Amino acid sequence: ExxxxxxxxxxxxxxxxxxxxVATVRVALVAEATLSFLGLGDPAVKSWGTMLGWAFxxxxxxxxxxxxxxxxxxxxxxxxxxxxxxxxxxxPAAGVATVHVQYRKGRGGWSRSVTKxxxxxxxxxxxxxxxxxETRSP
Length: 138
Hints:
5 helices; single chain; alpha+beta; 51% helix; two-stranded antiparallel sheet
């Protein structure tokens, strides 16, 4: 059973590993910014959450126009990093090919055929990818 897992399952998960790492980075960024905004982070460390916390502690933030310089830059920076990491995580998952292993019993014993199937559509599923073909074992 362990051999089956190592031979079949583990190689199939390597293609999704970069997407999972990027998703973990996104969650860590949001968690750190949220905790720092609430004042639960290290006050000696500068972070976007701490900057937002200090900005929203100012009572006349939106009345004086200070939000353009105090709150907007860290909020835009957090949003841009989250969008960039989302796009980065979507790219490897869109190009993942499916590996199909098929065992057949013939005259000489068991034979194994491995077929790699390319995805036919993009991650959104709306339009075909140019040059993507599906191959099948005979």
